[in-house]
């Protein structure tokens, strides 16, 4: 049986923590940053834990 290939889009977007959770970059930090408050941009710049429902799909794409 052939090896399962890792989804190349998923491996760029998610990283695995030591405890097995998946982290993702939060949306909204690409453009129009002048109009957003500094407090908001700092919050958006932090990594976020992926929800359990989404992490099940993402782990399958990563081959975990």
CATH level 3 topology: Factor Xa Inhibitor
Globally, the shape reads: elongated
Would you identify the CATH architecture?
Answer: Irregular
Count of discrete alpha- or pi-helical segments spanning 4 or more residues:
3
End-to-end gap: 17 Å
Series of secondary-structure elements, N-terminal to C-terminal: HEEHEH
Largest sheet: 3 strands, antiparallel
Mean pLDDT level: 94
Beta fraction: 15-25%
**Helical/strand content category:** alpha+beta
| Lateral strand order in the biggest sheet | 1-2-3
- Give the strand tally: 3
**Whole-number count of domains:** 1
Question: Percent of residues in helical segments?
Answer: 25-40%
Q: For this structure, what is the CATH class? A: Few Secondary Structures
Flag low-confidence runs.
Answer: none
**How large, in whole angstroms, is the Cα Rg?**
15 Å
Secondary structure blueprint with pairings:
Layout (H helix, E strand, L loop, with lengths): L7 H6 E3 L5 E4 L12 H7 L2 E3 L2 H11 L2
Antiparallel strand pairs: 1-2, 2-3
Explained architecture:
The protein is of the alpha+beta class and 64 residues long. It has one domain (8-62): Factor Xa Inhibitor. The protein is built from three helices and three strands; from the N terminus they run αββαβα. The chain has a three-stranded antiparallel β-sheet. β1 and β2 form a beta hairpin. It starts with 7 loop residues before the first helix and ends with a helix.
Give a concise summary.
The chain is an alpha+beta fold.
